[in-house]
Design a protein that fits this description.
Helices cover about 40% and strands about 10% of the residues. With about 450 residues, it is an alpha/beta fold.
Length: about 450
């Protein structure tokens, strides 16, 4: 839905124009049936502790500045739409381990540090193309933060508090995994048992893991203290989600200790989606006033002039690491549309002014004859290849990939090493919204990206 938002929906300061977005048009906002209940919910969220801290956002921005300079690579991945029921220790562990496995392949396959950002701990809202589903006549499912997937789907603002609680719990578990030894390189073989046993590419990962273990053993034998190596014991792991529900994001906005810089503390990195990136819209206005690292999704309809105007609005001061442009062109369009955008932005703002990241998922979605929404792994791979080809031709840095994935061996995307077909989709089709790469397909993609990074 498109709304002119109610300025009385929630409490909060209006200094520095932080609430100017309330007077602007906001796309993709739910139609909340009980405005008083919404106000009470937002007032509650305004008073709770934030999920992340400003200094963590600043550290991520510093890491992303290295990506913009071509010194590192951004790996961003996780669920299409997180659900409350699936927010379990096992589910989180599987996604984190998949990210870590991919990062190992990229780091040691391409000799490049990897900035790891989960599409997790906050991805509880989804934009939709229509308010009513044509097949069921029900209101569209807009994510667990808004309504139930199975039920009458009436938007309930109390679900925003559940989204907050689930996000905080998920991030707490992610932090624990990042620091409790679960992510130690010395345990790299423990991460890959299922993949090695089931995937034709398992032997490649096994060889890589063995090489890492040999290197660590050699350093120990030489008397080196490997515990001081940042990637050996523990990792940095950040959270991100689409900043879609503006009342929720504003309620979790806080100022830093100086009282001068506002941060959206629902997550470390927040992005604006393709459907909500109107230059004069509420989403761009609010995120332009936050000090977080920001992402911006752009699709094949984006012109070079539009891209530059949005970039200038979101990052007028050219802050290193501030802005990540996430292109989602589709395999058939990336080679035609992306070059002009990258060239125009680079000419006007200089090289390294933004991070260029590829989302090879959303532009390659299609429906099968038996009614499943899916993506073919070959299309995903081809868009990534096209993304790298564009940057190679322009001499710019292909800074990252943004993928929807799970740690489970679901059957939601066609192809891959196991050559999943239309008939296989029904086997384990478990997503709440869009199809995700399974663990094996995610690692196949990581090996492809590593090979392309080697050829830079």
């Amino acid at each position: 839905m498109t709304h002119l938002l109610d300025p009385t929906a929630g409490a909060g300061s209006t200094r520095d124009g932080l609430d100017a977005w309330r007077e602007l048009t906001a796309e993709q906002q739910p139609t909340w049936p009980d405005r008083q209940l919404l106000k009470e919910t937002i007032d509650t969220l305004t008073s709770v502790p934030p999920i992340v801290q400003p200094h963590e956002c600043d550290v991520l921005r510093e890491r992303l500045a290295g990506v913009a300079r071509g010194e590192a690579f951004l790996l961003q991945g996780g669920d299409c739409a997180e659900t409350f029921d699936a927010n379990t220790a096992e589910g989180i562990r599987g996604k984190v381990r998949t990210l870590l496995q991919m990062a190992i392949v990229l780091t040691y396959g391409a000799s490049l540090p990897v900035v790891k950002v989960g599409r997790m701990a906050g991805q509880y809202a989804k934009p939709r193309s229509a308010d009513i589903e044509t097949t069921t006549g029900l209101p569209s499912y807009r994510g667990d933060a808004v309504n139930e997937l199975h039920g009458e789907r009436t938007p309930d603002p109390r679900r925003l508090v559940r989204a907050y609680a689930n996000s905080a719990a998920a991030l707490n578990f992610m932090r624990a995994m990042a620091t409790d030894g679960s992510a130690d390189l010395e345990k790299v073989h423990d991460w890959n048992t299922a993949f090695v046993a089931s995937s034709p590419l398992g032997h490649k990962y096994e060889e890589l893991a063995t090489d890492i273990e040999r290197a660590l053993a050699f350093m120990k034998a030489c008397g080196l203290d490997i515990s001081s190596m940042p990637a050996t014991h523990g990792v940095e792991l950040y959270s991100s989600h689409e900043a879609l529900l503006l009342d929720y994001e504003r309620a979790l906005t806080r100022y830093d200790d100086t009282g001068t810089r506002a941060y959206g503390l629902s997550g470390h990195l927040l992005w604006v989606g393709e459907r909500t990136r109107q230059l004069d819209g509420a989403h761009i206005d609010l995120l332009s006033r936050l000090s977080n690292p920001i992402g911006l999704k752009i699709g094949p309809s984006t012109t070079p002039e539009e891209a530059l105007a949005l970039i200038d609005r979101l990052d007028p001061s050219h802050v290193p690491g501030r802005l990540t442009i996430i292109s989602r062109m589709g395999a058939g369009r990336v080679r035609d549309v992306l070059p002009a955008i990258v060239e125009h932005v680079t000419d006007r703002r200089g090289p390294g002014s933004v991070i260029w990241c590829c989302d090879p998922m959303h532009g390659n979605t299609r429906e099968t004859a038996n009614g499943y929404k899916t993506r073919h792994f070959d299309d995903v791979m081809d868009e990534v290849r096209g993304f790298f080809e564009v940057h190679a031709s322009l001499g710019t840095h292909p800074g990252g990939v943004h993928v929807e994935l799970t740690g489970d061996e679901v059957t939601e995307c066609l192809g891959g090493a196991h050559q999943l077909t239309d008939e296989d989709l029904a086997g384990r089709y478990e997503t709440a919204c869009d199809p995700r790469l399974n663990n094996g397909q995610s690692l196949e993609l990581a090996f492809l990206v590593a090979e392309m990074l080697q050829r830079r």
